[in-house]
Amino acid sequence: MRISTLLAVLLAAPATMVLAQQATFQTKSLTPEAALTAAKAALEACRKQGYQVGVAVVDRAGITQVFLRDRFAGPHTVDVAINKAWTAASFRTSTLALATETQAGRPMSGIRAVARFTAVGGGVLIEGGGSSFGAIGVSGAPGGEADEVCANAGIKAIADSIEF
C-alpha cells in the first residue's frame, strides 16, 4: 500500500467512526424488577388511602412491562391505567398536565382524538439521570389527582436506583 493511500485511509477513519456513532443510539430501560417495585409501591400508596386501583408501568415505547390490579379495582382500571401510562410515555409529560393543555378550545385539543390518549391525571413519566425510562399509570382512586399521588409514590420507590 502506498503511503498516500494509507494516509487517506487513516484520515478518513475518524469521520467514518463519527458517522457510525451517529447512526445508532443507546437507551436505558427499567428492569422488570424495578418496574414491579414501582407498581407495588403505587398500589400500596393507594391502599393506604383506601383506594382499590390498577397500576401499569410501561417502557419508553409505551409497551406494558407490569400491570397490577387490586382485588376490588373496577374492570375499567386495566385499560385506563395502561392508557394513562402509554399517554405519559408517548407525550413525555404527565396526563394531569395534558388534561389541562388539551381541553376544548386549546391549541393541543386535537390530540384527544388520538387512539389510547387519556387526558386524566394518573399517568406520570419515569425519568432519572437525564433519561426517560417509561411511565406509570394509576386508575381507580377518586380523581386523577389522587391517582397521580399514588403514581408518584411508585416513582419515589425506585428513584434512588434510576438517578445516576
Characterize this entry briefly.
The chain is an alpha+beta fold. It contains 5 helices and 4 strands; from the N terminus they run ααββααββα.
Characterise this structure.
The chain is of the alpha+beta class. Helices cover 48% and strands 16% of the residues. It contains five helices and four strands, in the order ααββααββα. A four-stranded antiparallel sheet has the order 2-1-4-3. β3 and β4 form a beta hairpin. The longest helix is centred in the first third of the chain and has 20 residues, at 3-22. The radius of gyration is 21 Å and the shape is globular. The N and C termini lie far apart (48 Å). The model has no long low-confidence stretch (mean pLDDT 91).
The rough form would be described as globular
Q: Major β-sheet, in short?
A: 4 strands, antiparallel
Estimate what percentage of residues fall within beta strands. 15-25%
Structural class: alpha+beta
**Low-pLDDT windows of residues:** none
Distance between the termini: 48 Å
Per DSSP E runs of 2 or more residues, the count of β-strands stands at 4
Count of alpha/pi helices: 5
Rounded mean pLDDT is 91
